[in-house]
Design goal:
- Pfam families: Glyco_hydro_1.
- The active site is at 363 (nucleophile).
- This is 6-phospho-beta-glucosidase.
- By secondary structure, the protein is of the alpha/beta class.
- 42% of the residues lie in helices and 14% in strands.
- The protein has helices spanning 17-20, 33-36, 41-49, 53-67, 78-81, 91-106, 122-125, 133-150, 163-168, 170-174, 180-204, 226-249, 254-262, 273-279, 341-355, 381-399, 447-458, and strands at 10-14, 71-75, 110-116, 156-161, 209-213, 219-221, 285-288, 293-296, 317-318, 322-324, 331-332, 338-339, 359-363, 404-407, 429-431, 443-445.
- The strands form four sheets. The chain has an eight-stranded parallel beta sheet with strand order 5-4-3-2-1-14-13-7.
- Strand 13, helix 16 (381-399) and strand 14 (404-407) form a beta-alpha-beta unit.
- The chain binds 6-O-phosphono-beta-D-galactopyranose (BGP).
- The site of 6-O-phosphono-beta-D-galactopyranose has 15 residues, from loops.
Length: 462
Amino acid sequence: MSHKFPKNFLWGASISAHQTEGAYKSDGKGLTVQDTRPRDNHEIADFTVASDHYHHYKEDIQLLAELGVQSFRFSISWARIFPSGSGEVNPSGIEHYQNVIDECLRHNIQPMITLNHFDLPQALEDIGGWSNRETVNAFKNYAETVFKAYGSQVKYWLTINEPNVMLLVDKKILGKQIPLKEKYQQFHHLMIAEKYAFKLCHELVENGQIGPVPNISLVYPATSKPLDNQAALYFNSVRNWAYLDFSCFGRYNTVFKDYLNQKEVSITFAAEDKNLMENHFPDFIAMNFYTTMTVEKPTDKNNMSEGISDQQSEDIMDWGFYKGVTNPYLKKNQFNWTIDPEGLKTTLQTLYDRYHLPIIITENGLGAKDQLTEEGKIHDPYRIDYIKQHLEQCLNAIEAGVDLFGYSPWSAIDLISVHEGISKRYGFIYADRTEKDLKQLKRYKKDSFFWYQKLIQTNEIP
Ligand code: BGP
């Protein structure tokens, strides 16, 4: 089997604003839900400083140019552009991301911009967040402002990062649990906001390409029991297909509708929603993949122990539908997330056959407790191995007919893990955060940096 990727395969690397920028109050930025959510002490410094990418972006992009990536996925912090979510634009925010885009283009790196990545402006949260239709209107205004500011320089756009994980793993991602009925009204508003982004991008960005960016984990049944298979069908629909069917088909699928009916959840539509849903679609699918999930049909109402999940440490327990169980056939990383490279091929083929759209992987990576040696080295063979195994499956999927056009692993530089804070590192570039003087924060190239650099140079797996 050739290890060569297609000629124009797009090699990238990914980050998000709140997990890397720091500078959480600088230059007029408003607070976001990530700045205000309850955290235990050791985490506060992390997100206020993170990797200080806000001040180090030139150095970081220079390193990415050395790495050889052709694209760089990053998110814009909405609260830097509109400190209170809407109203007055903050010129310093516009200027900052213009500088970042300029730096990328100077190095022939294509920016791939996520409009929103878990960091809703707090002022919008204060009026009910995604439960309030006003937030959809504010998002529409924000997206229009960003497309007008940068659309002539940026081709690739991603809408809202992982709305499924945001809602299903609300405790971890947002620091609070959203009541079920409210959760699915938020689902609808998030997906309508995405439809506005598709519409505005196609109206305002010449040759603009835009895609949704869910976290997709194919769901396996724990056994061949018919009810376990039914549990997998429902969790696949609620966790994965409900989102992509809305984005790509403009409708709710039958299983998801049945789930909502059984939960006695009804969603309020606005007059314009049907037309939006059925007339604005993505150009590609961006998919974040870490691993697969496994569920069984819960049978013992007395044993309502929360299900476990093989990733995101989300507790999957939905009585009457599914319960997360560990997949005994998969290895786990240091943070108890399973590793399933073959599952990536299955997921890609399933996705491609269902939606028939080009796909790019915009997150895939291994979080670990990397060690910086005295000589400034970081030996991370475990990360090289994880990425190599997953890229081999990407090649298998391409050879099986999947139109996979890019790979942008998580993460370009070390950042703050949503679940595990400062200790869980994903980057090809080690971000040292021990210096008190932020200007002195150093970056170090890990062994995986040189491995990925060679891969990009040769366009084949070393
Ligand atoms: C995805 C998010 C990323 C990042 C990643 C790794 O769901 O899109 O922002 O958080 O998960 O997870 P963690 O940060 O919990 O290690």
